[in-house]
Amino acid sequence: MRKLLYLVFLSGLIACKDKPEVKKEDVTQRDEPFQLYQMSEMAAFMENMYIDHQRIKDEITAGKKVDTLHYDLSKLFYARMTDSTDRDAEYESMAKLYVEYEEQLVGDSLQQKETYNKAVNMCISCHQKKCTGPIPRIKKLLIR
Q: What is the pLDDT of residue 123?
């Protein structure tokens, strides 16, 4: 019994031992300067396309005719990409097909839903090969 009491007393002393304090300035001080993420020209362009496609989706589901795009499709072929090696023959062919779908979208009022979904699916196909991160977000643009 005495040994148990002695053991409890020692463990209490060890547990109550002073712990060194960490100074706040040590935690917050950094040697590296903060770097703000800068979108590439292509990433910013695709963000604008995404926003406009939300508008287009809303118009098509409301039964309205989409007759304009609020972005320049030619940027797909010259905008600076995050990774310049992504601009290859496969990307170029997908971009050309995407432009065709977008031109059909504003030109054909009868098949807008189908053409719109083809264009969005082309985005998904390209991103499956190049940059997979935004795929879940792009899928939300599809009209079901």
A: 95
* Per-state percent for the chain, helix, strand, coil, to nearest 5: 60, 0, 40
How many whole angstroms from its chain centre is CA 44? 11
Q: Which residue has the higher pLDDT, 143 or 18?
A: 143
Task: Locate 110 and state its tokens.
Answer: 């009868």
C-alpha 116/C-alpha 144 separation (Å) is 11
Residues 53 and 63 sit within 8 Å (Cβ to Cβ): no
**CA separation for the pair 13, 7 (Å, rounded):** 10
Q: Which pLDDT tens digit goes with each residue over 35-66?
A: 777 889 999 999 999 999 999 999 999 999 99
Tokens for 129, please give them: 């090969």
pLDDT digits (tens, 9 = 90+) for 121-144: 999 999 999 888 899 999 999 999
User: Could you give the CA distance from residue 95 to residue 92 in angstroms, rounded to a whole number?
Assistant: 5
Region of 72 please: left (phi>0), alpha (psi -120 to 50) or beta.
beta
Asked whether residue 22 carries a pLDDT value surpassing 60, the answer given is no
Count of all residues that appear for the chain in the document: 144
12-16: long-range pairs with CB below 8 Å, 24+: none
